[in-house]
Amino acid sequence: MDSIRPPRTHASGVGIDCDGAYALPGLADHHIHILALAAARNSVDCSPEAVKNRSALSRALHAAERDVHGWIRAIGYDQSTVGPLDVTVLDELAPAAPVRIQHRSGALWVLNSAALAQLDIRSAPAHAVERDHNGMPTGRIWRGDAWLQTQLPPAGELPSHVSERSSPVSGSPR
């Protein structure tokens, strides 16, 4: 760089003398989703890195450990590996247990028939439950986390690696 411009002052009148160094604007996002991290420990990893194709997704779901209520929770799904999921595809790939898979965007959950049968779909916000041309749920729940949480069975016992006394969170994540 041949020359350095003189220091500029912000509209507020505040200037920063960097003594010849550069200050680069940027985004520093230092927050963490602690409950999501805890829930991820008890979820099947369905990310493209872990699940490369349809048969790998099916194997992962069939091998998954169920929670105390018999549900299987999976996260990180991306349609680049198997294509779009709906209740029909998930029923073909997953065991008969209730299964819910979260898309990696966080905006979508896909449920199989066994899971849908345990929910009161009529109580869902109209925007959350996608329906086919016959009005039947497709298994896709869009931005319906708050409603879905009210429908799921209680989280139950804490995982064996967390004691009630040492847990910084009251209750365990669903």
Automatic annotation (TrEMBL):
Organism domain of life: Bacteria
Pfam families from the UniProt entry: Amidohydro_3
Keywords assigned: Hydrolase
InterPro entries: Amidohydro_3, Metal-dep_hydrolase_composite
Recorded GO MF terms: hydrolase activity, acting on carbon-nitrogen (but not peptide) bonds
Region (Disordered): 153-174
Domain Amidohydrolase: 16-142
Family matches, as PANTHER family: IMIDAZOLONEPROPIONASE, PROTEIN LONG AFTER FAR-RED 3
Protein name, UniProt field: Amidohydrolase family protein
